[in-house]
Specification:
This protein is of the alpha/beta class and about 250 residues long. The protein is built from twelve helices and eight strands. The protein has a single domain (about 5-254), classed as TIM Barrel, CATH 3.20.20.70. It has helices spanning about 15-35, 50-55, 85-90, 100-105, 110-120, 135-140, 140-155, 160, 185-200, 205-210, 220-225, 245-250; strands at about 5-10, 40-45, 60-65, 95, 125-130, 165-170, 210-215, 235. The structure holds 2-phosphoglycolic acid.
């Protein structure tokens, strides 16, 4: 059975104090109100990770993720952070290939393949993001884009490594825009992704892989999206910055 996950992506938001209070609220709400969800992940800026990991240690359903790591193990890379450093403060997941990293920081499929390798080597589970731009959708090329991102970013992995990875389908045109993919549009791509995984890794691994939807997911649309056969949860940006909205999305899942 594949794992169901709701992951928050705080992006570059929340100073230290605000982050701690938001996370404490989420922890309390999850404890008091949420039953059944398999895993809640909070992907926060680096300054928060150690404190959040310590707080999360009391709540087994909540784990912590980072939003990026460098592709090298260590070395002279001023301003960067390594997978081993993240692991050393209790981080379990790392978002890799987010469209904002691809778009604003020039991250290519080849670079992301290296980042995925270093993350897995250090026992961090990648949440690997893929998705097409509006032009790519309108020109009907979105399946080709998804296929390329999968092939060049993660299909070099062994079966054992691939099984540790989570995939997030995030249509770029839906991120932070308030334009959500319809449940049917999202399901169509999720089913395509699972078909590609089955062709490469076999049915068993494909069926066990968690595929999240991301892009303007909110408490109103979450239940419809999450009820689709191949949607195993969400990667939530804006709505993860409000404890009530984030908790309501987690509840929509049950
Ligand atoms: P959004 O962001 O929910 O604010 O659209 C999703 C994401 O970028 O992961």
């Amino acid at each position: 059975m594949r794992k169901k996950i709701v992951a928050g992506n705080w992006k570059m938001n929340m100073d230290y104090t605000s982050g701690l209070s938001l996370f404490s609220e989420v922890l309390n709400m999850v404890k008091d109100e949420v039953t059944g969800t398999q895993e809640v992940v909070v992907c926060a800026p680096f300054i928060h990770l150690q404190s959040l990991s310590q707080l999360a240690a009391q709540q087994s359903r909540v784990t912590i993720g980072a939003q990026n790591c460098h592709q090298a193990e260590s070395g002279a890379y001023t301003g960067e952070i390594s997978a081993a450093m993240l692991r050393s403060v209790g981080v379990s997941y790392v978002i890799l290939g987010h469209s904002e990293r691809r778009q604003y920081f020039g991250e290519t499929d080849a670079l992301l393949a290296e980042k995925v390798n270093v993350a897995l080597k250090n026992n961090l589970k990648p949440i690997f993001c893929i998705g097409e731009t509006l032009d790519e959708r309108n020109s009907g090329k979105y399946f080709d884009v998804i296929k390329r991102q999968l092939g060049d970013g993660i299909f070099h992995l062994s079966d054992a490594d691939f099984s540790k990875l989570v995939i997030a389908y995030e249509p770029v045109w839906a991120i932070g825009t308030g334009l959500t993919a319809t449940p049917e549009q999202a399901q169509e791509v999720h089913a395509f992704i699972r078909k590609e995984l089955a062709a490469k890794y076999g049915e068993a691994i494909a069926n066990d892989t968690t595929i999240l939807y991301g892009g303007s997911c909110n408490p109103k649309n979450a239940a419809d999206l999450f009820s689709q056969a191949d949607i195993d949860g969400g990667l939530i940006g804006g709505a993860s910055l409000k404890s009530r909205d984030f908790t309501d999305i987690i509840k929509a899942f049950n």
